[in-house]
Amino acid sequence: MVGPDRQRKIIHVDMDAFYASVEQRDNPELRGRPVAVGGSRERGVVAAASYEARRFGVRSAMPSVIAKRKCPELIFVKPRFDVYRAVSQQIRTIFAEYTPLIEPLSLDEAYLDVTENRKGIFSATEVAEEIRAKIRAETGLTASAGVSYNKFLAKMASDERKPDGLFVITPKKGSAFVENLPVGKFHGIGPVTRSKMEALGIHNGGDLRSQTLSFLQKHFRKAGPYYFSLARGIDERPVCADRVRKSIGAETTFNTDLFTVEEARAALEPLIGKVWSYCEGTTIRGRTVTLKAKYADFQQITRNRTVDVPVTSRAVLEEVVSALLERLFPVSKGIRLLGVALSSLEAKSEARSGQQLRLPL
């Protein structure tokens, strides 16, 4: 833990509309036009949307048919994860010029601890400016960055000036920033928790700060102490370059509930893509596949399968998820959230790659 006399200097770098921006960079005909990566005109779900598409209300995880309705000129592009991974590695190399303390969150975002950096630059803001300039020069893409004294505030700061922006939250400004921040914008507070907080009269960081620890523990259980600290601008989590992940997962809450297996299967496509993209970008593989579903009445269930050897391809992951999904239907109530996770992780070199995967379904 960093003492009070030595504040951490954390940067959160977030690429702007990463997948869509790569497609626009590589295809001049797409520049300045609304682009959706993934999905299709008839079915599927948007994996990423360009800023031109977002102006029409198109968002990731949105069914393609709704996206097309919102933006009739929307152009659908098939994802190229091999290209996204290669660009991500370029960006990671730039980060490594400044610090070994890099905690990737996905292909397009990461935390960097630059308290002590390889360039000997005192100002974290200056480091962030250099990194953003290098990313633009070497990849032709833009990145937004947040600079602060902890991970929570750095993450919040990176959203403040998107796209292609930089925002700094100093220790003196941290408390006031959190006080005025709507709880729905807190990183880690999703739609369900936000609704619960608002029902309790908690609408912003100031409202959250006014609650006692016991009150937050009563209503939010294990997350209570975490919310108690965030409301005060406190986040002691270090940037972990070599953190051991217990699972890899992705989930999304839908604007409208899903009732058919076809809708659910299409909605799972980008989630499976995110999970497998992480696997392909690392040496990590997993044996336990978990499907999470939350219904309109907030009842939540999970279904999982553990296979004999680590999942070796996206096709296999899709097969297991599809088998788990089939068991949920037919449904008597809509599905408001779906999630996919891979656990029982191990490095690829440890996997018994010579064995054929058997699916005990």
TrEMBL record:
Cofactor annotation comment:
Binds 2 magnesium ions per subunit.
Provide the active-site residues from the annotation.
Answer: E109
The alphabetical list of record keywords is: Cytoplasm, DNA damage, DNA repair, DNA replication, DNA-binding, DNA-directed DNA polymerase, Magnesium, Metal-binding, Mutator protein, Nucleotidyltransferase, Transferase
For this entry, list what GO says about its biological process. DNA repair; DNA-templated DNA replication; error-prone translesion synthesis; SOS response
Chain residues that bind Mg(2+): D14, D108
Reaction(s) catalysed by this chain's protein:
DNA(n) + a 2'-deoxyribonucleoside 5'-triphosphate = DNA(n+1) + diphosphate
Where is the site Substrate discrimination?
A: Y19
| One cellular component (GO) term of this entry | cytosol
UmuC domain sequence ranges: 10-190
Question: Which cofactors does it use?
Answer: Mg(2+)
The record's annotation in PROSITE patterns points to:
UMUC (PS50173)
Compartments in which it is found? Cytoplasm
* Gene3D superfamilies the record matches: 3.30.70.270, 3.40.1170.60, 5' to 3' exonuclease, C-terminal subdomain, DNA polymerase, Y-family, little finger domain
Query: Superkingdom, according to UniProt?
Result: Bacteria
* A single GO molecular function term of this UniProt record: magnesium ion binding
InterPro entries, alphabetically?
A: DNA/RNA_pol_sf (IPR043502), DNA_pol_Y-fam_lit_finger_sf (IPR036775), DNA_pol_Y-fam_little_finger (IPR017961), DNA_polymerase-Y (IPR050116), DNApol_IV (IPR022880), PolY_HhH_motif (IPR024728), Rev_trsase/Diguanyl_cyclase (IPR043128), UmuC (IPR001126)
Q: What is its EC number?
A: 2.7.7.7
- Known role: Poorly processive, error-prone DNA polymerase involved in untargeted mutagenesis. Copies undamaged DNA at stalled replication forks, which arise in vivo from mismatched or misaligned primer ends. These misaligned primers can be extended by PolIV. Exhibits no 3'-5' exonuclease (proofreading) activity. May be involved in translesional synthesis, in conjunction with the beta clamp from PolIII.
The text of the family note is: Belongs to the DNA polymerase type-Y family.
Subunit details:
Monomer.
Report the NCBIfam families cross-referenced here.
PRK02406.1
The molecule here is called DNA polymerase IV
Organism annotation: Singulisphaera acidiphila (strain ATCC BAA-1392 / DSM 18658 / VKM B-2454 / MOB10)
Q: Provide the organism lineage as a comma list.
A: Bacteria, Pseudomonadati, Planctomycetota, Planctomycetia, Isosphaerales
